Amino acid sequence: AENMYFFSELALTLNEPEERVAPTDSRLRPDQRLMESGRWDEANVEKQRLEEKQRAVRRRREAEAVEALEEGKDYEGYIPLWFERKVDAVTGELICVYKGGYWEAKDKQDWSVCPDIF
After folding, report:
1. Does the chain have fewer CB atoms within 10 Å around its N or its C terminus?
2. Which residues form a coiled coil (predicted)?
């Protein structure tokens, strides 16, 4: 642990790649993989590319929302694949609740519903 920033053994293994996960799994982030390989300059360039890609998606969604509003249409916006927002009956807070689908997709290795985020 002393050589690994005093992280516990568990903490060190949490980011280990795993086979057969969704292509959106954060452990597959290319910038993260580069960083962990010590390729800092490449990781930084890749991180900037990913962030700009995220900004472009956000701008597209915002433009679609404005267009829908101008046309008097409803706009749903982003809908998470595996979770839905609900109000917690006890606390009254907005929470995300698993709605199903991930484990079935993992069993079938059918990730066709996943967006291209990397």
Report:
1. N
2. none
